[in-house]
Amino acid sequence: MNLVEIAQLAATAAEEKKAQGVTILDIRGLSVFADYFVICHGKSQTQVQAIVTAIKDKVLESNILLRGIEGYQDARWVLIDLGDVVVHVFHKDEREFYDLERLWGDAQQVQVQ
């Protein structure tokens, strides 16, 4: 599975749990630590945790290396490290505050399928 397909898999899993504003950013050439960001948010801590669990389950089911998950307990900004794909699952308030799409404004958006 290539990196775009991994990002799409994570995005689809998030959408299945009703994640809002699911976005994939192509950050190749802009970052040395990843090639793609998947960004989305939930409206509650419970929903954020459900989104993260769904992504984790899909990734493991597809035999993709899951390097780590940070922030799950607080469920305000959860990072899922899939190597060259990093998934950011925010609580709605944190997403608006950190506004990663603006910070990475030079990145190309990839259409979520």
TrEMBL record:
Organism: Hazenella coriacea
Protein name (Swiss-Prot/TrEMBL): Ribosomal silencing factor RsfS
Name of the gene this protein is made from: rsfS
Gene3D superfamilies (UniProt xref): Beta Polymerase, domain 2
Pfam families: RsfS (PF02410)
Task performed by this protein: Functions as a ribosomal silencing factor. Interacts with ribosomal protein uL14 (rplN), blocking formation of intersubunit bridge B8. Prevents association of the 30S and 50S ribosomal subunits and the formation of functional ribosomes, thus repressing translation.
Family: Belongs to the Iojap/RsfS family.
Quaternary assembly: Interacts with ribosomal protein uL14 (rplN).
GO BP annotation list: cytosolic ribosome assembly; negative regulation of ribosome biogenesis; negative regulation of translation
Keywords, alphabetical: Cytoplasm, Repressor, Translation regulation
Entry-linked InterPro entries: Iojap/RsfS/C7orf30 (IPR004394), NT_sf (IPR043519)
An example molecular function term from Gene Ontology annotations: ribosomal large subunit binding
GO cellular component, one term: cytoplasm
Compartment annotation: Cytoplasm
